[in-house]
User: What shape does this take?
Amino acid sequence: MPRHLWCRSLFRLGMGLGLVLGNAACTATPPPASSVALRQVITDETMLRYGAMQIDVFSLLIEARQRVTVNIAAIEAQRDFWLASSKLTAAVAGGGASGDAGATPRVATGLITTAGE
Assistant: This one.
């Protein structure tokens, strides 16, 4: 089985079971982007059914909640992907881990400091 189909199958299996599966072999872009596109199609169909008075408002609210959940998961997956990518780049370039690796930089009194200080 080609790698991209295997990764896609692994992702679908994980989503069906409610698991977050991480695999070093699947290093392509984060797969939830396809979930966001699919959720948009489902939302559009739900809106059409609501407009035709085939479903009630509560079904529409449930769909909106699910769409927001998928969008949040996609954003978090992209964030995790880019954080891991930057850590890998730093490790390959020889950057070491510092004590305040998780601190976010902020500007205070004209100087750049870390949030932990």
About this structure: Residues 3-82 form one domain. The chain is about 60% helix and 5% strand. The two ends are 51 Å apart (CA to CA).
